[in-house]
Design brief:
Rossmann fold; magnesium ion binding (chains A, B, C, D); transferase (chains A, B, C, D); homotetramer; alpha+beta; 6-stranded antiparallel β-sheet; about 30% helix; 23 strands
């Protein structure tokens, strides 16, 4: 039986370092093409669209705008509202716009990696925004370097734009060049590509990353998630299909589907964690999927208890599902401090014992003397989970039953999620029982993979669950190989 | 019957201006007194304590530290983590510390108004942090000006510190001078006062503003709310009593209670809106009070419906209570964008039709075709409420039943809440039926005052509900009089 | 004979720290009173006036403006153009304005010390800008503290404004209260005081700090130096007299001279170093005074040489004078890097040998093989001087003859110059011969005090030369006493 | 005869816009290669070197450092000390370093244009810093674009680095690839190129832009001007020859000179205006050249006068020369405000009459009642010159005789000086007499081209004087053609 006091004093230096304790969010892309004769503030719409996608990346953001002749852009480190003010948005006048929010890896030259990337080429100016990761980027980069290409960033996106430009020499149209690029690259991508006069939306052949199409008054819209369509009052038209190239030109929208249909492999973690609950991806509601996961979790791992609570915000939907399935009342037992952000100072070693309930605090009256079921969407390194269990026990919970609405994460992701090796994954090192002990919970249950894959009810796609089962849809580097995060 | 389309196109210029649509949060105070021989990082503790109180004020913050000889301080505009970094905290070495977060009114000299205010006086250095509002500050200020006092801010706190200093000429101790100050001033206050070697906590005679005492390893702690005690692992000892002066000196804590017991009048809105749900004030749990308000609301204003949802975050607790009372399932139907902050650009007139669902978006699958009960804690101007109803209807809600877990706000507050006159209060101008029409809801029900006042279960205090019934515990200025916000 | 190589490798840790090697510049004040019916951009004029006075203080600046009803202000750390932009100047609308630039001492609460200080008092709003230092500030402060006054800064200016406010209780007019304040305080001051409707200019009874009056189209102007009048195209009217109170009210200017005439004691270092060469103070031209000092220096300390050069910018005028007196050609031999400012990184110990000619570099062709006379205005600590001599020798100068156009500084200043004790003064510790050796010069000559005091040709005042001869016009603290810098 | 009053009230909107009134300064480059076994702080040296070159560009700066394996860099907008602090310099650890200061043209993507440009290529990492302008950059860019190259900036430097990379496919060594690049490009350049392990310095075949080699303890140094060698205590070795490639590798320095000797064409304006007076370029002293120009000007355009003054700082050397040649005493008559920088607010239309003497003020005692000769190095648009003449007349100068130490500028420069067309050049539109009238001078004399070209005494090069005589050493675009500024 776990001894709470011991845990609290544990000397694990990473214990408070939650930066690594969530799989990092990915990038988001957003595009607007206004139809001729409509006065649409495309930069303004993109600002609000990126705002709705901010959860997909908080480190840098950018907007590029075309007036059908010239592309101008602004990008920088920071949150969307930190980078853009009214003056800047007024400078970005045009009829088409591409935006990007980015979760950026560390490094000295981070600012150079902000997107959209905007270049001059034989196709004139090109702007490219990319969500995803290219698995064979290093190899492609080396090949092109041999042939005299230079690279100014460590960004996969620069590889893509160079490939498109090379192929355009032997192509009639930009979309033909994009098609050839899609043959070369292995990986995940939701892309928006803009020339001075035309816009393309592209989704990788497996559909690993999402991309959807909407329409608002006088304009077409492309976005990583449907919540960004809602933000700008655009009607959802449909998801871009895996392997599809959407072309918006001369006020018309058309498609090229150069590849044979493959088993599609949408990233299951879009439903588990990444996407906003109000988004609908490939016809399945994100919130409904999480709620359903909670119900299935209750069936797979029932427990006698007095209250079900969720870890805010990611475990709330599943907790309500768990409660409804079991009849155990749903309650609020944890409060999350909304002001913990990038500049928060982590407690130093000496402060850890005193500063334990800064990010999450328990509501004592809700848990005191009770048997508590606590639901979260996933466990990566386990340190946050352990702290939450401790906070509940300190507040007087009689029992704490941890339930996780997805299976143990055992394999690294090569398609956009920032888990660079197995070393950080607690489920790769420990058994479920060992994890239970490590996090000081009375019982621990994970939703099964079979259960999880049924949760996006009504989805029209298959899923990539490689991080859970190791079945990568594309050949990936040997473990231990270095690879750069693409997005 | 409300016509959704008309509302959406309404030309009310304030429609999107939500800054005035919530009663603004107040200030928070926090103090640490470390006992002799203990190495306590008092500035670090204060940083985490203010972090936990950040919801009470986001415009400025400050920390003053004493090493028992000299007080040094740092304060500025912004959030706690924007103002303090490791280097700055390391400069603030000492054994006692006072911190403050402030909701500041607009004005050219705002930075001067940041607290704690630190002065040199016949008592040596004094630091003062104040949560509350002094009703007769202007009169007191004028009297002192006549006698040659100068004022460098428009802050009530400067009035208090001048009064204390004046009275110290005829007083044996600092606490005696504070007592005399308490006779002079009319208003609400939770104060922390620090000299180079001693700390005082003071609560106004009616106990309008909260203040509590805790103890952590080697230190006494004072805080506006108990959630800040939790953040630094301090044990809650007790609330400071109305009219009590707590003195911490020579490693001992003692009290002076100079006034006859009065009917205490804790601000009821601490439970309705201000305080964090995990706080316990005057023995009542904030979250439990809100949950209870939801239950009573269900009894007072029942409705047939398919789902109960709460406006995040303030309406969630009451929505769960409403659901549990009625048996109507609790669900998630609204998502709040967590990244909307001070620098967010409000949509311009031309953008309003397109940018409606930026701050709150509906989860379509949760509300489509359903009869929805939506719960919020209060309605001030009504514009946010109307937009939320519209968002739900646009997402397909068949009916929207608005329930408010507090009564209509009809009177201005003179004790710290930033409603400067009746003009902004929709409930002062319109009947409940007119408000229902204005916000486009199918039905509207407010919790009664009687119901609300019973919700802080186990509270040991009476309440000030002047903003709801006009019964001010202290004589206040005539309506229309100018008065400055104190905190 | 000095061995250049030894000096270069000296291990004196302060060797490169030039911050202490010049007597720091003081504050500057500027005021505008626009006559009724004239549309004068008073904040704009003050911006340009402070720009011209920027050499008197680079650490903070501020402008307060009155529209004859209310005073608004803005002040911050930094240079004038860093603090004020067009938007801010447009906010400062009014018909009277007071500005200040400040050389500020170090300390945690520096921002609080920025001026003008603006308060509310029985006289309504008051703004005060002060150049100078009050010798008995501590004593006055303590007296007022005993009587219940609080102080929010360590600034002498707060003492002055409290005194004025106290005395206004027993005075008919503001000027009468100022008169009484002048009886209380001992020290140097050039003040500008502004109520909502009236402006006062005040100079201390000894006239230690300068202040002058000008008139431009539609407005009266007050300024520390005449160069600021030139900057706003104002005609110089006259210097304010020692002990005079100038009152500008109801579009009229009048004076009160409450004191008997004293021997005036204008700070001689205004001519030696502080003031801009294009200023005229008490009827003497600053540039002409420096030129004259160079001529007298040539007579007192002749030398055979090939070229005379000045240390830019402070030694140039005297060098031309020396050249004209002796017939030795004037030349350019040193270049000063114009970009060395507050944020320049001083070379670390390891870099000193390689980074010697960053701030001053020699023009080799001008000095190689020549006997060089190098002129500077003063020597404080000697380290900069030594480095300049080394640079010249390294460039091939055969001989380097140092000439200083003022006498050795042996005593601290209590009236505004930032030399806090004798310890830093090389001339207090070493004889002229020892200094010569320390700075590696072949010969060294200082202008005599008699010579210096004759140089401000046509001046209508006597001088304070206490830092040179120890004859303080006012009783000063014992050496070693702490005292705060006033300005 | 010029009527001063009229001029002062002239309504020319550009009258105060001095940004265009000086030919803009160019870029500066600096490189350090430390020899094996020496602990040299290469980033620190580069910081001080760029400091000494700051006059050549104030808009952006950057430093790239190699530890013989990897290149890291930092660059940003602003002055050197604004961009680099101690923490940043400590991050830039290595044994080789390249730095750049840039005068940048306006545009939305300015930050992207900061240098050094650092890329990954078949040669590994490459860093390139460039001073100069490539005349045929557009054509080369288009050719490469046709072959599939993308460009991320509008910077000529990106053209150069792409060319070098292309040619490296068919080259044995990097220097061979550079040679081939030199055949392709037409224009001016002083380049420093760095791989992870080797450094190249390159000067264009006509030697239009300067570059020199120095040696300090344990390191070779390359710099645009010798004053930067002095700053880091490096001995001047020699100038890089026109068309020479200097290679520093394996601790050895060697050269390739692939081209036949051409008539060299060093930009004469390096002596007239760009370079620092303490620099020596191609064996001629800059200060001595300016002094000599003043002497020749006195011979060509003698005048009877009482005093000779220079416009600070650019006209001082020539003024001393003029004085020595004629015997008319040299004096100080103008003061320049040292604090006028990038953020200075230009006076608005309404302020112009009042704010005339902000940047330059006259010293009245030096010019009143006198016949004044005023010397400047050049006149571009004439507006600054006119204002200076006005300031002198307003101060009482009886006569003002303008003398210019270079000939009228009549032709645009395509090699790095920012005069984009003839339209801005007063000397292209007006005769000397008309200019004299426009600037309100009593007489006006320009130094002849013959005279000027003799002034860099001892120079080993011929000169490009195309902006004075239209004789471009390289074929240039037709007037009116757009071209981008390279540096």
């Amino acid at each position: 039986m776990c001894n709470f006091g011991d845990c609290l004093k544990c000397s694990n230096p990473d214990c408070f370092d939650e930066r690594l304790d969530k799989m990092h969010e990915e990038c988001g892309v957003f595009g607007v093409y206004s139809l001729d004769g409509n006065e649409v503030d495309v930069a303004g719409l993109t600002y609000y669209g990126l705002y709705a996608l901010q959860h997909r990346g908080q480190e840098s953001a950018g907007i590029a705008v075309s007036d059908r002749e010239t592309i101008v852009f602004h990008k920088d480190m920071g949150l969307v509202p930190e980078i853009f003010d009214k003056v800047m948005l007024n400078h970005l006048k045009g009829t088409m716009s591409v935006g990007h929010v980015r979760y950026s890896t560390t490094g000295a030259s981070r600012r150079e990696n902000a997107q959209p990337i905007v270049v001059r080429s034989r196709n004139g100016q090109l702007a490219l925004a990319h969500n995803g990761n290219i698995v064979n980027a290093s190899m492609l980069r080396e090949q092109m370097e041999e042939n005299g290409t230079i690279f100014q960033t460590t960004n996969d996106t620069e590889v893509l734009i160079n490939l498109i430009t090379k192929h355009s020499i032997t192509s009639e149209t930009l979309e033909e060049a994009v098609e050839k690029m899609m043959v070369d690259v292995k990986g995940s991508y939701g892309l928006i590509l803009m020339t001075a006069s035309k816009m393309l939306g592209v989704r990788d052949p497996y559909g690993i990353r999402p991309l959807c199409i909407g329409k608002t008054a006088g304009a077409y819209v492309l976005a990583s998630e449907s919540c960004a369509l809602d933000a700008v009052n655009a009607e959802f038209i449909r998801d871009v299909e895996p392997g599809e190239i959407v072309i918006i030109e001369n006020d018309e929208i058309r498609s090229v589907r150069p590849f044979n249909k493959k088993d599609t492999k949408l990233c299951i973690f879009e439903f588990v964690y990444f996407a906003r609950p109000d988004s609908v991806i490939d016809c399945a509601s994100v919130q409904q999927s999480r709620y359903e996961a909670g119900k299935r979790l209750a069936i797979e791992h029932p427990v006698e208890a007095d209250v079900v609570i969720g870890v805010p915000d990611s475990g709330i939907s599943a907790a309500i599902g768990f409660s409804n399935q079991t009849g155990i009342p749903y309650g609020e037992g944890l409060v999350k401090n909304r002001y913990v952000g990038r500049t928060f100072i982590q407690p130093s070693q000496g402060m850890r014992e005193v500063a334990v309930r800064i990010k999450h605090n328990a509501i004592k009256k809700s848990v005191e003397g009770k048997r508590v079921v606590i639901i979260d969407d996933s466990i990566v390194r386990g340190t946050t989970t352990r702290r939450i269990v401790q906070v509940l026990k300190k507040a007087g919970a009689k029992e704490v039953h941890m339930r996780v609405s997805s299976p143990p994460i055992k394999f690294p992701c090569y398609f956009g999620i920032d888990i660079s090796s197995r070393k950080e994954l607690v489920a790769d090192k420990l058994s479920v029982e060992e994890i239970r002990e490590m996090i000081c919970a009375d019982t621990l249950g994970y939703l099964s993979l079979e259960g999880l894959l049924k949760t996006p009810i009504g989805s029209k796609r298959g899923f990539c669950s490689a991080c859970l089962d190791g079945n990568y849809p594309i050949e990936v580097p040997e473990e231990g190989d270095k690879f750069s995060c693409g997005c």
